[in-house]
């Protein structure tokens, strides 16, 4: 971690007497900081000197100065995919490793800096690890105003994100989702100042082709020519969780493993469960995840 020169890496390491020699617990990111907002970081907990101990891992994170929030509670998985897509700054990722046989545990924290994607006064649209989800980033705006983003294809109905309160010292970032594959879109933000709407410049982008194939289906009732675009969210035990528009076009999918999507929570978050009786119960879980597929919170059976 020699490149972590802008901030200090915090490491809290407890000696686990039951493991014999003090183990070396290391938390490694897949990319070195700093990195732009929305970058996928794969955190891996590496442990030496423990032998065949039965270990479980808990991952928590926070913006520096804030409170820790659990992302994945104790379980056998030692790897976590993570990002920060809301506000640039320094984040702290923490892993606690527990020996189930002895109850002893060790905790390690690492800092990771996420930087703004905005340069100058122009908004930008960037890809995310999800092929049909994009990240719209705009310059700061003045409180007590609020901002939303509107996007549409040339032949489509405009879709708007929920409003976010303006931040004077940080870029404004929004996931854009619900778009058809291989289609050109235009997006722009609007700032509600309280006295009116201030319109931002248009930003063009194009969604890629998606190799994902859906099971056969037939649209019985065509979408009305006017009104809401409409979304059908589909979750079955045998296929991937997907969303289509009312014409049957794929506009979103969840790339992770859930046997059932239980419900959307709003703000681009969903709840799902994974159940398979043949598996050990720690591998069955309930998970909250976002539009880009990142786990927000998870605990196992």
For this entry, give a set of tags.
301 residues; five-stranded mixed beta sheet; disordered N terminus
Describe this structure in words.
Strand 11 (146-153) and strand 12 form a beta hairpin. The chain is an all-beta fold. It is globular and about 65 Å long. Helices cover 0% and strands 45% of the residues.
* DSSP strand tally: 24
Estimated helix fraction:
under 10%
Indicate the overall shape: globular
Which runs of at least 5 residues are low in confidence (pLDDT < 50)?
A: 1-23
| pLDDT averaged over residues | 86
Terminal CA distance: 35 Å
Question: What's the helix and strand layout?
Answer:
Blueprint: E1 24-29, E2 35-36, E3 41-48, E4 55-63, E5 69-75, E6 79-82, E7 89-99, E8 105-115, E9 124-127, E10 134-138, E11 146-153, E12 159-160, E13 164-165, E14 172-176, E15 184-192, E16 197-199, E17 203-206, E18 232-234, E19 242-244, E20 250-253, E21 260-266, E22 269-274, E23 285-290, E24 295-300
Parallel strand pairs: 2-8
Antiparallel strand pairs: 1-3, 3-6, 4-5, 4-7, 7-8, 9-10, 10-14, 11-12, 11-13, 11-15, 15-16, 15-17, 18-19, 19-20, 21-22, 22-23, 23-24
